[in-house]
Amino acid sequence: MMNTLRFLLCAAALLAFTTTPGMAQRKPASPHETVTAMIGDAKLTITYGRPFTTKPGTTEARKIWGKLVPWDKAWRMGADQATTLVTPKDLTIGDAKLKAGTYTLYFVPSEAGASKLAISSTTGKWGIPVDEKNDVARVEVKKAATTKAVDQFTISLETAGMIKWSWENTEYSVSYKAD
Length: 179
Description:
Number of helices: 1
Largest sheet: 6 strands, antiparallel
Oligomer: single chain
Helix content: under 10%
Order of helices and strands: HEEEEEEEEEE
Strand content: 35-45%
Distance between the termini: 57 Å
Shape: globular
Number of domains: 1
């Protein structure tokens, strides 16, 4: 009983401290997000961590492509847990055919060659190290400059059947469609 009371008092004090007007609210280093798109009557879902360009706890801007995210090496495509794709229907991403199920997405960006989205059957793990042994497919993606800087890593599922992800000054994309 005494431990429960202590816990409740500590929780109330913490809540009061973090919601006091005028107190600076600290944003999480990499908040998580889930994006969805309907494929007929089924919902396609991607869940990922969204790191910022600014180094956590500082105002220091980080160089993303080629530095934080190295060229020609597997990157977890976000932060924290591995980025997860759930498709309730068979799906084609780029030229890769996937059965309905859960997959991990990661990315292999290239400065000069073809950048690739990798799709792995290994799921439910932390984002690093990236498990390349269980790739189901790797598909080439398009690379384009963004019209304005993107401070926080962002993935979107476009209604036109495109998966897009952008950060810093670059956007990548690949098509998807239900089979």
